[in-house]
Amino acid sequence: MALLRQIQSLTKVQRNTFSACFLGWTLDAFDFFLLTVCLRAIAADFHVGIKQIAESIFWTLVMRPVGALIFGAMAERFGRRPTLMVNVISFSVFELASAFAPGLHSFLVCRALFGIAMGGEWGVGAALAFETLPSEARGFFSGLLQEGYVVGSLLAAALYGLLFPHLHGSGMLTPWRVMFMIGALPAVLAFYLRVHVKESPAWLESREAGVAKKAFEWGALLQFLPSFLFLIVLMTAFTSFSHGTQDLYPTFLEHDRGFAAGNVGLIVVVGNVGALLGGICFGTLSEKIGRRKAIVCAALLAIPMVPLWAWSHTVVMMAVGGFLMQFMVQGAWGVIPAHLNELSPGPVRAVFPGLAYQLGNLLTSRNSVFQAAYAGRYSGGMLQMAMAGTVVVVAVVVAGVTMLGGEAKGSDLSGVG
Prior knowledge:
Blueprint: H1 2-8, H2 12-37, H3 39-46, H4 50-78, H5 80-99, H6 104-130, H7 138-146, H8 148-163, H9 175-182, H10 189-196, H11 201-208, H12 218-223, H13 225-246, H14 249-255, H15 261-289, H16 291-301, H17 306-311, H18 315-334, H19 336-343, H20 352-363, H21 367-378, H22 384-404
Helix pairs in contact: 2-6, 2-7, 2-8, 2-10, 3-4, 4-5, 4-6, 4-20, 5-6, 5-9, 5-10, 6-20, 7-15, 7-19, 8-15, 13-18, 13-20, 13-22, 14-15, 15-16, 15-18, 16-18, 16-22, 21-22
């Protein structure tokens, strides 16, 4: 009921804008996670090992900051809406190109280019959404927007489970290639953006004020360098929080607990449901208690969940632990879209949040390697201690860094200031 009331309180323009931004992030994530569920099939098709294909995930993550900078700069100069249209078409085209890659090297190039497009969507979409939405509902929609990433993951897993086993083909129409062709369908969203979504009021005001053409310059970025560096540190902590609890968890369930693939899938899905609900709940809560307090509460509440999450032995208890852990982790994340946009100066709002976010992703792209190395050296290959220790340390760091920063809850994002 609360969800319906929040949505009904929006104007038609605001609903269309948020829907487009949410779908953009969801479909972006959907295209990314199609790769993760098809890794084994792609490796077999190219006659290489999983490790070689997994490099495509690394290159996607590495190139995301490039996309955040390129598309963010475009959004400052040409507007949020047309940039988002180009961005959606770009990641759809590179997803389709991946489907027709004849070999490993061309596939890696396509995934690197996809990473550029993927890196641009979050920052531009968030700027367009929060410069259009009313400030009093910002926390709720922040949580909902961020969890578009989780919805994208669930859609990819569902499509894989329902369709992939029934696909048969050869040559250029092997099952994974068909999946990637389906992944190009988000390009249709560009038409929705063109017809139903209006430009950000903040960007229109900047154009009328005569600053849109010179809105993004390196000097503007350097002017706010201390704030930018803080956001990078904050997002490095946050991406460590999410990657540290997600990337190796399925492997932990299979290797340390010996669960079958079906049970692993069930636990991961339950965890994703917890993530979705946690993001919305803590995003909404942040409107009442503030952004920083909501983040700190969610981060620190993840610590008491560690025993259930890492030391349980039954499928049911592991599912409960996964639900509660991701409820807290993504609860903290649910505040981030609004928090970062409120902390970002108007002239660089399309660049600041997205670039800081993606640089944090870059700095934590080897997180799973470090966890696995620790487990191999100190825990006999068992991941339990490495993952539990990551949660405790990173949760404290997230809470500490958050409290060291400022807060601008409810600030006016409708103008250029």
